[in-house]
Amino acid sequence: MQRAERPAESAGQGLRAALAAAFVKLSPQHIIKNPVMAVVWAGTLATGAATLAGLASPGFGWAVTGILFFTVLFGNYAEAVAESRGRGQAASLRRARKDLMARRIDAQGHEESVPAAELRPGDLVLVEAGQLVPADGEIEQGLATINEAAVTGESAPVLREAGTDRSGVIGGTQVLSDRIVVRVTAEPGHSFLDRMIALVEGSNRQKTPNEIALGILLMVMTLTFAIVVATLPFIGGFVGVEVNLVLLIALLVCLIPTTIGGLLPAIGIAGMNRALQANVLAKSGKAVEVAGDVDVLLLDKTGTITHGDRQATAFHAMPGVDGALLRQAALLASLADPTPEGKSVVRLAREKGAQEAQDMDPQGARFVPFSAQTRMSGVDLGERVIRKGALAAIAAHVQSLGGQVPAEIEARAAQVARSGATPLVVSDGRQALGVIELSDVIKHGIRERFARLRGMGIKTVMITGDNKLTAAHIAAEAGVDDYIAEARPEDKLARIRAEQAEGRLVAMVGDGTNDAPALAQADIGLAMNSGTQAAKEAGNMVDLDSDPTKLLAVVEIGKQQLITRGALTTFSLANDVSKYFAILPALFAVAIPQMAALNVMQLSSPSSAVLSALIFNAVIIPLLIPLALRGVRFKPASATELLRNNMLVYGLGGLVLPFIAIKLIDIVLSALFSL
Ligand SMILES: Nc1ncnc2c1ncn2[C@@H]1O[C@H](COP(=O)(O)OP(=O)(O)OP(=O)(O)O)[C@@H](O)[C@H]1O
Ligand SMILES: [K+]
Ligand SMILES: [Mg+2]
């Protein structure tokens, strides 16, 4: 499948804009949101003032001031770069949101041309091949192929059809064939695209609980170090050493967690962007991150594990029942059934020679639509009651009319089900006539994906309205861990609640209106973009590609975000410890010669030591921006394993790297400036 590139700004343009944004973010209202950086910014101003007041030599004072300023700027820049990526995507989305004219149809069926901005939920609009869909909605009549590239970046046409779980259309997408009547579902200004734009621009980015907790921890650490450093002059007073203000601020900045403080916002934004690159629209960053901790995944069968295009492939008439009679009844029961199942029954019955009966009077016919509750559909022709549906449903129905489903039918239905197909039993009055075989195909590669989920410790549960035997067959073939059959929508909801009550985090993938309650209840509700509006509203993520196994990608992105934040935090804190040992001997070396014993790094001079540590402290932020944006490399593994590896790499690396880097910077500085 060809993925049409979403137009984005050129890289150079984006980086220049990010640099400008980094300066704008120096404003007090913005910087205060990042307490660690706010302290560095205040320190910058203080060292500047101290140098002006002659408290430090101008060369050293201004050098420290300059380095501190760049530290703040680099932190802002990291956030701005992450944001600018989203902005490029927002710009291309905005191009898709055009001022369109809509062909609105009134109650009398008259058509009038109105601006799309005037459309209200409930309005009916006509869209024909070549035209753009003027607003978000659901197809009320007809079916069409649609090009959604403007929204999804995916240029392959998709089929959308009234009365199915694939009836949703998005404003701004183009109808390629046929003609549809769409019922508008979105208020002007609150369309799918509007919300996407707001999200990627980060205007309503909410911090995730983990991010908030870490933010508080960093703030407390900063405060603690500030208090410790503030007491140093008094301690110095006791031992007769005067500690310089500029040096104190330099020490403070080295100690407080500036690296993670500067990169934290970028990590959060990057997670959202990565989700969007995977064509998943998360309603919040929290949703993405929670996905990293999912324990159980519920999926429905039809359309999720299988292609969902269940086709009638055979009629099995009961002994003593004429095959033509069965096909005739099946045809009548399906004529007004808009589901893919219903249509395929009509097609197969006609292929096999069934015709609408002469005695069929459309006036006297009352069609009974399929529902997931009743699990059957059919038609009442005067006194004649024809139904087709799940075996259990038809058995109950026939029994209520005083009949009995014969054992042969049960056996045949079981046989069909054991092969993985879905049996529909057809009844005319109190007599069961036979079985329709509906075949569906399991999606390619789904087994491997479930295996991968299992590798990450996630349990998969298939939950289907279909019968036990079919469910068991498909479950085994697809490789899910568990399944629930004959589930009604409320059963899906109950299962999610039960899992949650046991303290598990539950993800649900679905597309139908009857999945909506479950999607809303689940911690992660991933709705298919092709699905109904209700499903999309209820979930907290929408997959633009309508690929149920996309949850795998979402889980990986969430895990990666958690791991990246953890790794960079570890690295940052380990770094600060090392910087402390580099800079502390320098502070007291002159006054207390014994401190020289601590001067393991043998830096060329106290000022060079301080400047080297500060320079390292500043440049490590931009150096880590690519890692913060891309995320730490991630392989499916258990949480403890990942933790151990990261502690080793980022903890140990964070401890060792500063000693080497600061020593190198010191050598260069002393050579250049003979410090
Ligand atoms: N158009 C229809 N007319 C009559 N019966 C149907 C029709 N479509 C499905 N059924 C029967 O109702 C059952 C339940 O259908 P439902 O759509 O709720 O679940 P499902 O599609 O089988 O599974 P899933 O929940 O995984 O999508 C089906 O297994 C089938 O026996
Ligand atoms: K620091
Ligand atoms: Mg279904």
Automatic annotation (TrEMBL):
Q: What Pfam family is a match for this entry?
A: Hydrolase
Q: Which reaction does it catalyse?
A: K(+)(out) + ATP + H2O = K(+)(in) + ADP + phosphate + H(+)
Where does this one sit in the cell?
A: Cell membrane; Membrane
Q: Which family does it belong to?
A: Belongs to the cation transport ATPase (P-type) (TC 3.A.3) family. Type IA subfamily.
Xref: PROSITE patterns: ATPASE_E1_E2
Residue stretches making up the P-type ATPase A domain: 101-201
> What membrane topology term does the record carry?
Multi-pass membrane protein
> InterPro entries, per this entry?
ATPase_P-typ_cyto_dom_N (IPR023299), ATPase_P-typ_P_site (IPR018303), ATPase_P-typ_TM_dom_sf (IPR023298), ATPase_P-typ_transduc_dom_A_sf (IPR008250), ATPase_P-type_domA (IPR059000), HAD-like_sf (IPR036412), HAD_sf (IPR023214), P-type_ATPase_bsu_IA (IPR006391)
Coarse class of the primary localization is: membrane
What positions constitute the catalytic site? D300 (4-aspartylphosphate intermediate)
Transmembrane domains' residue ranges: 35-53, 59-78, 212-239, 245-267, 580-597, 609-629, 649-673
UniProt binding sites for Mg(2+): D511, D515
EC number(s): the record gives 7.2.2.6
Q: Which SUPFAM superfamilies match?
A: Calcium ATPase, transduction domain A (SSF81653), Calcium ATPase, transmembrane domain M (SSF81665), HAD-like (SSF56784)
Q: What is this protein called?
A: Potassium-transporting ATPase ATP-binding subunit
Oligomer status and interactors: The system is composed of three essential subunits: KdpA, KdpB and KdpC.
Species this protein is from: Comamonas endophytica
Q: Any idea what job this protein has? A: Part of the high-affinity ATP-driven potassium transport (or Kdp) system, which catalyzes the hydrolysis of ATP coupled with the electrogenic transport of potassium into the cytoplasm. This subunit is responsible for energy coupling to the transport system and for the release of the potassium ions to the cytoplasm.
Q: Which domain of life is it from?
A: Bacteria
Q: Which UniProt keywords apply?
A: ATP-binding, Cell membrane, Ion transport, Magnesium, Membrane, Metal-binding, Nucleotide-binding, Phosphoprotein, Potassium, Potassium transport, Translocase, Transmembrane, Transmembrane helix, Transport
Q: Which residues bind ATP?
A: D337, E341, F370, S371, A372, Q373, T374, R375, M376, S377, K388
